[in-house]
Write a structure and sequence with these properties.
The structure holds two protein chains of two kinds. Helix content of chain A is 65%, strand content 11%. By secondary structure, chain A is α+β, with helices and mostly antiparallel strands. Among the domains of chain A are: 166 residues, no CATH class; 103 residues, no CATH class. In chain A, a hairpin with a 3-residue loop joins strand 3 and strand 4. Chain B has a single domain, classed as 3-Layer(aba) Sandwich (Glutaredoxin), CATH 3.40.30.10. In chain B, the strands form two sheets. Chain B has a five-stranded mixed β-sheet with strand order 5-4-3-6-7. A two-stranded antiparallel ribbon of chain B has the order 1-2. In chain B, helix 3 links the parallel strand 4 and strand 5. Classes of the chains: A alpha+beta, B alpha/beta. Chains A and B meet through helix 4, helix 12, helix 13 and helix 14 of A and helix 1 and helix 2 of B.
Chain lengths: 654, 180
């Protein structure tokens, strides 16, 4: 009954999204204010019914309604309750419903936080979001309906949730990621609304900034969580795999990062107007492309959803309509828009241009690597091939290194003009100082590696510039403590965003170059000495979980005779699906992780064991979270909200 | 009017991308996962027959004719959905070998009694060892094994009438044509 209610809500949502597409747009074309204004209440209704549909599906999971196909194939009565909820987005149908709900949520948010926007722009934005919601809901109902039942014969027990997904990381990772992915729909809708109205002005950029920041921050958190999950759950201690689906989330992130910077220059200096619009379209287009790659099955990956060519075809057609239509509109409407402002080649505008170019090149590199197997298959007549980490490391990393050099150089740049003298003053000193510090640390704490020297020098150099930036500002305020609290939040957001990248760089280069690992056979009583730690295999025992049985090893770790910790890695057999899972056990630390995973049983008591020590690996995720926090902080800027109000009055003048 | 032609570049780039993606559909069945086992001998096994615990089945039992090897279980919802299709396939003269995967013996026998048993015989893989060797993602999965015991095709998911007509049958015809 509840399931039918959910199904019906989804159908109602489809109807409402169609109305939302048409009525406000009709109002804009005919100049009818009432029609333009009705978008608000329709959008609220749309969100309500999507939420109702989603909650109904959650209910079906909680009460183990196995007559619903989706529940039967992704849940089990023995599944712990919190995983029953997360199982809702554990496979294609439910996760797409979540995706649609998130779009409904963003549309709802637009009605709440856009009081300043003129009536006609608001109608346009809502109409575009309504069209996207229509496409998503229709897709859900036509090709991936989670509410389908198999009656009268239905199983008494469910197939269980894929054990890989029975994990805390997977409860939070998809919602965060989707909020980010789908969030780019708002700047996209704004960009299209602007092209549609023909008023490409600075107010557009100002209005887009907070939305872009929030979406970007969520995407950052989502990607970071995904990396963390892969690290502890997949069982071999990697944190990034250049997997097609990871790339699918990484491309919108790269373009989104470019967009954040470009929006700043469009807002402050009215430059790069059409370019910024193009970036806003691209960020969302790449989100859609990601959805296509993940769900169509044209690429195989560890994330493989239930793959269905029909679904892929639908998304592809939708992609062509939305992105093709937008780019055609762009080609026609962006004509004649010029930025009359000039800037010098060492100004902040120029730095942002470099940032944008490098990020777009990086995106192109990832896109090429992701699609190359498809292109190869098309050209070679069906041969399959995979592009692996060697390609990405060889091409992507150098682009990033150059980007980080400019990150250091750009901290001092001012809008419009900055003389080279100002820009380069003391930089030589900073570089040498950073290199000295990096070399000193390396010689005292570890072994010399030239790549680590390069990356950590750049990281320290950026840090020095960030520090100088703060101190200079402080100095201009005559060292008054109070003045530091009076700084706009967006300033601290900027610092934190960049600081996060510094932290992440240190984390990545130390993890990559200083990790040590051993794969060995261990029986009770065996010991291993690795990088100053003694690992002792104490025993192996069988334990029972709620829906699995497990071989659990105890490995005690000591250092110089002192107990550090006892680790309990497991090999689990999930009974419902019969799948075997490796549960690594990790002793996390700010400066090093001890990572122990069980391999295969070799004899009655001896097991294959993988032991790793990963220095600074946490810094990768801490860095990501710091950057995301920076993005959120910038949105809270008070000054910025006031000026938005001031500007919207211009927006109303037609 | 389009005066600035460079603004069309994004549209052109996207169009070529769309063509590429479109072609990736038409070329090959995208649900075909590259299997490590393709064109390799069926993995070795020594497992009980489902109907008789004293009868041990091994890979030699698959030799002689092209056959379907179907991984199924009573807990698998979709196996029940494909069951009528498999029954029709078997009536059409294609041998189907069942791998009863991680299942309860009694339940499996009751299930076969209730819905019918179109299979030539069943391998009882109650520990999932053969399934692991086959790289099974989940039930149901269906393999085509030729008369020399070589794995020729792998289908993941339900065998529907469509899947049978468009994917499996052509492969079987091809294999039988080769051996004839």
């Amino acid at each position: 009954m509840i399931t039918e209610l959910g199904h019906f809500s989804l159908i109602l949502a489809l109807g409402l999204s169609l109305v939302l597409t048409l009525l406000p747009a009709w109002g804009v074309q005919t100049g009818n204010i009432t029609l333009m204004q009705c978008g608000d209440s329709i959008a609220k209704g749309l969100f309500f019914f999507l939420l109702l549909a989603f909650l109904s599906l959650c209910y079906a999971f909680v009460v183990d309604d196995f007559s619903v196909n989706y529940v039967a194939s992704n849940s089990n009565s023995a599944l712990p309750p919190y995983y029953k909820i997360s199982a809702v987005w554990g496979a294609h149908e439910g996760s797409f419903l979540l995706w649609t709900l998130v779009l409904g949520g963003w549309t709802f948010a637009v009605t709440l936080f856009s009081r300043d926007l003129s009536v006609d722009m608001r109608a346009r934005v809502l109409s575009i979001l309504g069209f996207l919601a229509f496409g998503f809901t229709l897709f859900s109902l036509l090709t991936s309906n989670p509410f389908e039942r198999s009656l009268p014969v239905f199983p008494g027990e469910g197939n269980d949730l894929n054990p890989l997904l029975q994990d805390f990381g997977l409860i939070v990772h998809p919602p965060m990621l989707y909020i980010g992915y789908v969030g780019f729909a708002v700047p996209f809708a704004l960009a299209i609304a602007t092209l549609w109205s023909g008023r490409l002005d600075m107010a557009w950029a100002r209005w887009s900034r907070p939305w872009t920041n929030v979406a970007w921050a969520f995407l950052t958190v989502g990607i970071t969580l995904g990396s963390w999950w892969a690290y502890y759950e997949l069982g071999w201690g990697g944190w990034w795999f250049w997997d097609a689906v990871e790339n699918a989330s990484f491309m919108p992130w790269l373009v989104g990062t470019a967009l954040i910077h470009s929006l700043a220059s469009t807002e402050k200096r009215a430059v790069f107007k059409t370019w910024t619009v193009l970036l806003a379209i691209s960020a969302f287009a790449l989100s859609l492309l990601g959805g296509f790659l993940v769900r169509s099955g044209v690429l195989t990956s560890v994330h493989a959803f239930a793959q269905d060519p029909q679904r892929g075809m639908y998304i592809l057609i939708f992609l062509i309509i939305v992105v093709g239509g937008s780019l055609a509109l762009y080609a026609v409407r962006a004509q004649g828009i010029k930025s009359n402002t000039t800037f010098s080649w060492s100004s902040r505008e120029a730095m942002i241009l470099v940032n944008n170019l490098l990020l777009v090149v990086a995106t192109a590199v990832v896109l090429l690597g992701t699609l190359y197997p498809l292109a190869y298959e098309a050209v070679s007549g069906g041969k399959k091939l995979s592009v692996g980490p060697p390609y990405f490391n060889a091409v992507f990393v150098p682009v990033m290194v150059v980007l980080f050099v400019f990150m250091a150089l750009s901290q001092r740049s001012r809008w419009k003009d900055t003389t080279l003298d100002v820009l380069l003053k003391r930089q030589g000193f900073y570089v040498i100082g950073s290199m000295g510090t990096a070399a000193l640390l390396m010689f005292t704490l570890a072994t010399f590696k030239s790549y680590v020297l390069l990356i950590s020098t750049i990281a320290f150099w950026i840090f020095a510039n960030l520090l100088e930036n703060v101190l200079q500002r402080f100095k201009r305020r005559r060292w008054e403590w109070g003045s530091m609290f009076a700084q706009p939040l967006s300033y601290y957001g900027m610092l934190l965003g960049h600081l996060g990248m510094v932290v992440m760089m240190i984390g990545i280069c130390c993890t990559v170059y200083y990790s040590v690992e051993r794969d060995l056979r261990m029986a009770p009583g065996d010991e291993l000495e690795l990088a100053g730690y003694q690992f002792k295999f104490v025993e192996i025992r069988q334990i029972n979980g709620p829906n699995f049985i497990s071989d659990q090893a105890e490995i005690s770790v000591t250092r110089n005779g002192q107990d550090v910790i006892s680790l309990f890695p497991e090999k689990r057999l999930y009974s419902a699906r019969g799948s075997v899972m490796t549960e690594a056990d990790i002793d996390p630390g700010l400066f090093r992780d001890l990572y122990v995973a069980l391999g295969e049983p070799l004899t009655q008591s001896a097991w294959g064991v993988r032991i790793q020590i990963k220095p600074f690996v946490r810094w990768i995720w801490i860095g990501g979270l710091l950057s995301a926090l920076g993005g959120i902080l910038a949105v809270g800027d008070k000054r910025y909200r006031r000026s938005r109000r001031k500007d919207s009055s211009n927006f109303l003048k037609i | 009017m389009i005066t600035n032609k460079s603004l069309i570049i994004p549209l052109v780039l996207f169009s070529s991308l769309a063509v590429l993606l479109w072609r990736s559909f038409s070329l090959e069945d995208p649900s075909l996962l590259p299997s490590q086992l393709l064109d390799k001998p069926f993995p070795e096994f020594n497992l009980e027959d489902l109907h008789s615990s004293t009868r041990i089945r091994n890979a030699d039992d698959l030799l002689g004719d092209v056959s379907l090897v179907n991984v199924w279980a009573t807990w698998c919802v979709n196996c029940l959905i494909e069951h009528p299709v498999l029954t029709r396939i078997a009536q059409g003269g294609v041998g189907i070998v069942g791998i009863n995967y991680n299942d309860d013996l009694k339940k499996a026998l009751v299930w076969l009694d209730q819905y019918g048993d179109p299979y030539t015989f069943h391998i009882r893989d109650n520990k999932g060892t053969l399934a692991i060797d086959l790289g099974v993602y989940g039930a149901p999965e269906t393999f085509i094994v030729d008369e020399s015991g070589t794995v020729r095709y792998r289908h993941i998911g339900v065998v529907t009438e469509e899947v049978w007509m468009e994917k499996l049958l052509p492969v079987i015809n091809l294999l039988r044509g080769n051996s004839a």
